[in-house]
Amino acid sequence: MRLACGVEYDGEPFFGFQRQKQTPTVQQCLEEAIGSVANHAVGVTCCGRTDTGVSADLQVIHFDTEAVRNPRQWTLGINSALHKAISILWVKPVPDEFHARFSASARRYQYRICNRSVRPAINRHYLTWVLKPLDDVRMNQAIQYLLGEHDFSAFRSSQCQSKQPVRTIKHASVSRRDEQILIDITANGFLHHMVRNIAGTLIRVGKGEQSPQWVEQVLQSKDRRQAGITAAPNGLRFVGVDYPNHFNLPTSVGHAS
């Protein structure tokens, strides 16, 4: 039997999602907690691996088991065994052909910037601080050049293992609420460090160092050296994922207003 789970986690205590040998990761904690409820070793697959320090409002995983539990028993049992920085939101049976990664039709990330003269304290692990005033209107103009299907090699890390760099951005916006700037991107998939590299590029536009049209030139160059620096991981948040309706999962990427 295959089960899908919605997962929320605070990425600050972990060295990313993917299991590593000697450092705590989200995957390790999930597999140990689920295994304790299933009474057998479990391997989990996620819809998108997050880096060190990156949090998720709604990550989706799947795992296979022969253990018989109802969804509430799975949810309460796993949560009772989990690290306090991780929470199972729901558990649902899915067909064997469901795959948390390959069945996804869209993923949504947000990048959050604290834009003020003094550094943040309370939310310092979940925001990137930029001292110089940023023009969010120019940043929003710039990000529109990334909409649609493109080769995103200019925003791809050198460690990216994806076989090809073409992705389709379905929604992209930059908005401001008081001292916080929100970069919001929905795409069919993302390359390694793609959102953080886009954020670093948009910050240059927001500072007035480059024009909004420069982002189109960077995109067309397909050259990572032409883009901005990779923005810090702590501002990045995995917000959600969409799947075809026939899987009937309680997920939605939505959009910020």
UniProtKB/TrEMBL annotation:
Gene Ontology process terms (BP): tRNA pseudouridine synthesis
Keyword rRNA-binding part of the UniProt annotation: no
Complex formation: Homodimer.
EC number: 5.4.99.12
Binding site for substrate: Y109
Keywords: Isomerase, tRNA processing
Organism: Marinicella pacifica
Its job: Formation of pseudouridine at positions 38, 39 and 40 in the anticodon stem and loop of transfer RNAs.
Pfam short name (any one): PseudoU_synth_1
Any GO molecular function: RNA binding
Catalytic residues as annotated in Swiss-Prot or TrEMBL: D51 (nucleophile)
Catalytic activity: uridine(38/39/40) in tRNA = pseudouridine(38/39/40) in tRNA
Family: Belongs to the tRNA pseudouridine synthase TruA family.
Signal peptide: none
Location of the Pseudouridine synthase I TruA alpha/beta domain: 8-102, 142-244
Protein name per UniProt: tRNA pseudouridine synthase A
Classification via SUPFAM superfamilies: Pseudouridine synthase (SSF55120)
Domain of life from the UniProt record: Bacteria
